[in-house]
Specification:
The chain is built from 15 helices and no strands. By secondary structure, it is mostly helical. It is globular, with a radius of gyration of 27 Å.
């Protein structure tokens, strides 16, 4: 009875955390909401909270956090909050904002929406782009090479959503949200909601939210199936936070995965994940270099075998031309 009650409580933690995020950004102290460091703190706080929940109610012993996984996840979470965020700002958000201003595009209608609808708008716009980018990554070889490292992870934990090749992390972070005029707190609340959903969708927590939650939002059941061993098994449940998009576009699949990873379930190092998209070119270069070296050795050996042979002489003793 005690375990049953514990699981029942955990099933409602994801929607409760979403409610807490919304309440904070809607009614929090103005001094906190306007402080630029607040957003920087909130997202890691969500991840740390869910990591602690993994210790309290673990889903699979095989996904248990260890020292190596912890520091790898920490590296990628810092990377996505700094270098990746700055890169996206530089190559996408700043140019889009400038283009919007130069073209005189305004979306006053968005700002006039009720606050909660602005939150919904941000989530839908952002997730719509992520869904199609994610789907493209599974259906186009060049894009798959950037995304495959994320599928080489061999366990799921709260910090795993940020693990991947840097190129993929930039691509999956692109968004058209900057084209809309919106209340900043609504934008931050939307990103907070998405953070809660995606962290739980990667977390080793025994939490199965009620059907009214899992119909719209991605859960660990949906996403663990997406991370199943074998490429074909991964081609479903692309929604990072909105599994509803998979239901709409016909890519939803029911089920749950336990064994996760790709190929022989080899865990990639940070260096291997970074070089992964370029590995075919690197292998081709190495093969060509090896073939050239072998060819040079064959020529050298051939010259060595015949280089000491006496020159042919004419009757008069002069070397033949």
């Amino acid at each position: 009875m005690e375990t049953s009650l514990k699981n029942r409580i955990f099933n409602y933690i994801p929607p409760a955390m979403i409610a807490a995020v919304l309440l904070f950004w809607a009614f929090g102290p103005e001094a906190l909401l306007k402080n630029p460091w607040t957003l920087v703190v909130v997202s890691p706080l969500i991840t740390v909270t869910v990591l602690l929940l993994e210790w309290v109610n673990e889903r699979h012993a095989g996904w248990r956090m260890n020292r190596q996984e912890f520091f790898t996840d920490l590296f990628y979470n810092i990377l996505i909050a700094t270098v990746i965020a700055w890169t996206v700002q530089l190559v996408a958000e700043t140019p889009l904002t400038a283009a919007k201003a130069s073209l005189g595009i305004t979306t006053a209608w968005a700002m006039s929406l009720p606050w909660i609808l602005q939150v919904v708008l941000v989530i839908v716009v952002h997730e719509f782009g992520q869904y199609w980018m994610h789907r493209l990554m599974h259906n186009s070889t060049p894009f798959w090479l950037t995304h495959a490292p994320h599928h080489h992870i061999t366990q799921l934990n709260a910090g795993k959503g940020a693990v991947g090749n840097p190129i993929e992390l930039v691509l999956i972070s692109l968004s058209a949200v900057v084209l809309f005029d919106l209340d900043k707190t609504a934008v931050f609340a939307a990103f907070g909601v998405q953070s809660v959903i995606t962290v739980f969708a990667h977390a080793n927590v025994r939490a199965d939210p009620p059907i009214w939650y899992s119909f719209f939002f991605t859960t660990i059941r949906h996403h663990s199936l997406h991370h199943s061993v074998g490429y074909e098994e991964t081609r479903c449940n692309y929604g990072n936070a909105l599994i509803l998009l998979d239901r709409i576009f016909g890519t939803y699949r029911e089920g749950e995965g336990v064994l996760v990873g790709q190929d022989d379930r080899k865990r990639l190092t940070i260096r291997e994940q970074t070089l992964f998209p370029f590995q075919p070119l690197i292998d081709r270069y190495k093969a060509r270099k090896a073939a050239s070296r072998n060819s040079d050795e064959i020529v050298a050996n051939d010259q060595g075998e015949h280089g000491d042979a006496p020159a042919r002489e004419t009757v008069g003793g002069a070397a033949a031309a």
